[in-house]
Amino acid sequence: MAMTFHLDVVTAEQQLFSGMVEEVIAPGAMGDLGIMPRHSQLISKLRAGELQYKTSDGMASLFVSGGVLEVQPHVVTVLADTGMRAEDLDEAAAREAMKQATDALQGKDPEDLDYEAIQTELESAKAQIEMLHRIGKLRGH
């Protein structure tokens, strides 16, 4: 039997996952983080991207738009800004969000723009599309 640890993935609205896992690959702010059982403690900001985890049933994925990852020796907690299950991702909605963010950045009144929020939306939409394409390739689409 493989060594495991507990993973909790939550947003302000919902719990996306809670259970025992063998491994987590998280989209850290400075690059992907691979977490195995008994990993040393750490806290990291997350960027928008795919959070992968391995259970006894195999690999699974969630999308997180950013947040914080806390690693303890036997528990990993992800406090995601927003997130969704891979099967709930919608490429058309992500492309529309990307278009709206791009249009907003090209807007006429730059004083009223919240560039950081718009950039975050743009990065989140791009990450969703990238994840959809990766998953599609894995499923043979």
Automatic annotation (TrEMBL):
GO molecular function: ATP binding; proton-transporting ATP synthase activity, rotational mechanism
Membrane topology: Peripheral membrane protein
CDD domains reported in the protein's UniProt record: F1-ATPase_delta (cd12152)
Keyword line: ATP synthesis, Cell membrane, CF(1), Hydrogen ion transport, Ion transport, Membrane, Transport
All residue ranges annotated as the ATP synthase epsilon subunit C-terminal domain in the record: 87-130
The ATP synthase F1 complex delta/epsilon subunit N-terminal domain, residue ranges: 5-82
One matching Pfam family: ATP-synt_DE_N
Gene3D superfamilies attached to this UniProt entry: F0F1 ATP synthase delta/epsilon subunit, N-terminal
GO cellular component terms attached to this protein's record: plasma membrane; proton-transporting ATP synthase complex
Subcellular location: Cell membrane
Main location: membrane
Subunit note: F-type ATPases have 2 components, CF(1) - the catalytic core - and CF(0) - the membrane proton channel. CF(1) has five subunits: alpha(3), beta(3), gamma(1), delta(1), epsilon(1). CF(0) has three main subunits: a, b and c.
HAMAP family listed in its UniProt record: ATP_synth_epsil_bac
Role according to the record: Produces ATP from ADP in the presence of a proton gradient across the membrane.
NCBIfam families: ATP_synt_epsi, PRK00571.1-4
Similarity-based family: Belongs to the ATPase epsilon chain family.
Protein name: ATP synthase epsilon chain
Organism, as annotated: Thiothrix fructosivorans
Lineage: Bacteria, Pseudomonadati, Pseudomonadota, Gammaproteobacteria, Thiotrichales
